[in-house]
Amino acid sequence: MSELNDLYQELILDHKRHPRNFRDMPDATRAVDGHNPLCGDQLRLFVKVVDGRVEDVSFIGVGCAISMASASMLTETVKGRTVDEAQRLFADIHDLLTSAQPRVDPAELGNLGALAGVHEYPMRVKCATLSWHTLDTALTSDEDSVTTE
Amino acid sequence: MISACLVEHESGEPIQESFAGGVSMNAIVKPRSAAGWDVARVRRDFPILDQEVHGHPLAYLDNAATTQKPRSVIETMDQYYRRDNANVHRGVHALAERATTAFEAARESVRRFINARSPREIVFVRGTTEAINLVASSFGQGLREGDEIILTAMEHHANIVPWQLLRERTGIVLRVLPITPAGELDLDVLPGLFSARTRLLALTHVSNALGTINPVEKLVAMAHEHDVPVLLDGAQAMPHMRVDVQALDCDFYAFSGHKLFGPTGIGVLYGRESLLEAMPPYQGGGEMIRTVSFEKTTFAGLPHRFEAGTPDIAGAIGLGRAIEYLEGLDWDAAQAYEHRLLECATDRLKEIPGLRIIGEARDKVALVSFVMDDVHPHDMGTILDHRGLAVRAGHHCAMPVMTFYQVPATSRASMAFYNTVEEIDRLAAALRHARELLA
């Protein structure tokens, strides 16, 4: 197993301690609840999509360092992107964390590449992908909640 | 370190590591001596304990989830499949005879171990969960809309959900005995919960999330004053204390083999014979019948009426062997030793900044549930695992308990008689490391 510091990188700890865009969004166009029943992680993701672009994104919730940091980094990265770009990011993150041989180079994902260490911790992958599944649901379906089951 | 954990030196005699907290230790440690407990020797009986995890010796502190198995259990099951495997209660060939004899001998071992009056009172099931489902389904058939069952706020989901399913089928009413902030049952409330419609009190003997040992003898006596039978969930009690169902005077007692140093897939429902006799079958099939025609089926006697289908024969035999192993131990010394582990873990963990122990009942088994400021239990689980420490993180299938304490989850270190003070020291050091890393 890799070093613990590969999982809890400084960047991840910073987002855990100071989550970005951690707020309610009264004028959101979509609000979706994400729930990981296995560990109880729970978050609500807000997006404001205008003309096919994610104008604003925020979240509230409770969870482990990995899930909180992943959600925080998601909001930083996705804000201002088009819906198509956001969905491609979701696909990349999913590939990075769950594929036996990820095709994505973490270096090309900027800050999000810090999540790559989660790949070595199968029991924790769902912590990192929870917010991304919630985003996917917000952007592509009418469901108001999603679970990692 | 100022806590005064007693440590075993090489001869096995306990010595006091530090006298800084000696006064309180003298007050806490029961007069029973753990001097006869040779933990190094006991550990050699459990082959799985001798391994490294992530470069550290395994410290298995997740015994409330499942316990490890002594070599004799593993070998007995291996031998059964190599030599004796056949189906039970049918066939007249030699292997069928051997398998049946061993299976029923295991039932007798269980009877002896919990001091039931008769093997007719020992029903083999898959585990505690199935045992409670059996009672909810079968005993529950006799209940009517408006009948009441009393549960407690510290139950495992296995002693909540079966009754909710019964409620959906029959319209029974569930009443819940609350707990105190210390994690003890609020006994003052109990008398007011009994009514003329109360049909059962179902509660856990020992809480899996808090470690609390409930005063079940007293509770059984109170219930019987109201002519209410009592079901005890003994899953967490059995590995830590000798249980005598006649002394407890309980009506049902459920437990799992795998938490009692036996295999998974096997468990026991003890039922008072007069109650079991009056209960309809649970599942239908082979093993549980006397005669079958398309017009009418007559059912087998106890306990087979409740054991439809081919049972987990190897599992039952393995459980019987686990019981024989436990019967060979000095139980008083084991309990005194476990008590010392609990005191040591409690003292060590209390010294750690930002750590809060969840469940501080006066009477506990060797289990410590805790939360740490700014460190989520799942991060804690990963960090501890990195140091070879196996603990459980989560809601422990007791979400009402988590809700009561307003925590999403806890970390839980649950010990058995093969754990050591040194492992607890490693746990304490790793907890401090987790706090430094994440907080």
Walkthrough of the structure:
The complex is a heterodimer of chains A (149) and B (439). Chain A has helices spanning 4-7, 10-17, 65-78, 83-98, 125-140, and strands at 30-36, 41-50, 53-62, 145-147. Chain A is globular, with a radius of gyration of 14 Å. By secondary structure, chain A is an alpha+beta fold. In chain A, strands 3-2-1-4 form a 4-stranded mixed β-sheet, covered by helices on one side. Chain A has one domain (4-140): Sufe protein. Chain: A (Alpha-Beta Complex), CATH 3.90.1010. With 439 residues, chain B is of the alpha/beta class. Chain B has 2 domains: 6-61 and 331-438, Aspartate Aminotransferase, domain 1 (Alpha-Beta Complex), CATH 3.90.1150.10; 72-327, Type I PLP-dependent aspartate aminotransferase-like (Major domain) (Aspartate Aminotransferase, domain 2, 3-Layer(aba) Sandwich). Helices cover 37% and strands 17% of the residues of chain B. Chain B has helices at 22-28, 39-44, 71-84, 94-114, 128-138, 161-170, 190-193, 216-225, 245-248, 273-278, 313-327, 331-350, 377-385, 399-405, 421-438; strands spanning 6-8, 14-16, 52-53, 56-57, 59-60, 122-125, 148-152, 173-177, 198-204, 230-233, 252-256, 267-271, 289-292, 297-299, 355-358, 367-372, 389-390, 392-394, 410-414. The relative contact order of chain B is 0.17. The chains are: A alpha+beta (149), B alpha/beta (439). The interface between A and B is medium-sized, with 21 and 18 residues.
